[in-house]
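FIELD: query
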Amino acid sequence: MSSDPLPATPETDVDSGLLYDLTHTGTSLAAMASEAHTVIAMRTLGMLGFWPMGVGENTQMIMEKPAAMALAADEALRATLQGLRPDQVLGAALEPIRARTQDNAHRLTRLDIWERN
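FIELD: result
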């Protein structure tokens, strides 16, 4: 029998803030994807005449993307210049895009839309 002590298990040096940030960024990405899918479905149904949409919805669908992408690029650049981690840069870039998808999904799925048209 050997009397050698058991080897020490290496301690993980994982910051709980990092885990939170990674989880938050991943959750935001998943939510944005879900909202974008909802918006695409509602707008497609609207163009086919199966879902009521506002008069300027088709124009807004085209015009909102360059503005959101410019804001996302600006936020990503700012985060990069501040020396943030890649997940934080992604999170910063995601915020303006997520704001648009969240707003669009909320507006297009409201029940009072049936009363307005």
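FIELD: remark
The chain is about 70% helix and 0% strand.
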